[in-house]
Every structure is written in structure tokens, then in C-alpha cells.
Amino acid sequence: MVEERWFKLRTNMFNDPKMKIIADHDEGDFIEGIWFRTLCLAGIVNDGGYLYINEDIPYTLKTLAIEFNKPYEKVKLSMKVLIKLQMIELTEDKFYVVKNWTKYQNVDALEKRRIETNKRVAKHRAKKKFEEEKRKI
């Protein structure tokens, strides 16, 4: 998958009940930071909110702590809170997934851009082929 360099955030996100619960936690600031890092990592992987090193190797708590350069125990606590609040899930295959990832990615715009790029490439190839055929004559 091609890495996306952005994802959407709502300006009123801190009014969300889940974010308020996180903010009220003793480690709230840390957990918020892990949430944003998790969103960024999901954008880098760019596969429906899944977090993995490659398609066969999911991130574990240990590898997330290494990736985020944060203490293991705090990452473990953060992920536990985010799972409990249903912001992240851990699949049966042990992959962490950002729930409702499409809420953070403008999937329609990405699909539109992909289609437009495919059309542009096809047009360019057709033009190139036409010019090559023209030279043969």
C-alpha cells in the first residue's frame, strides 16, 4: 500500500466522551499521545487501520513500544484503555486495528484520486503507443 501522509481529525475531538475519559485518566496525556501515534502508524501502513510491520508480522505491545520509543508498560496501559474504549481492537490473528478508520481517512477522496491517476496513466500510455505507431508508418 502507498503511504498516506495525512488523516482527518475533528476540531471538536476533545469534546468526544472517549477523549474526555482518556483526559481524566492519570496517564491521560500519555494515552492521547499513543492514540495519535497509533493513528499516524495506521496512516503509514495504510491498510484499513491495521497496524503491522508487514502483512505477516503484526505489531505487538513490545514492537509498538519500540516503534513509538516509549516505555513498554505505559504502551501496554494505553492500548488496554484504547481497546476498552473501543477505539482499537485486537483481532483473533493478533493484529491491532484502529476501529472506524474510515472516519479518519477520506476514503472517497482517496478512491477518486486513485481512479483519476489510473485514467491519467492510461491516457499517457495510449498517447505514447499512438506516437510509436505513428513513427512506424
Automatic annotation (TrEMBL):
Residues 6-125 form the Phage replisome organiser N-terminal domain. It holds the Pfam family Phage_rep_org_N. NCBIfam families: phage_rep_org_N. PANTHER family: HYPOTHETICAL PHAGE PROTEIN, PHAGE REPLICATION PROTEIN-RELATED. This is Phage replisome organiser N-terminal domain-containing protein.
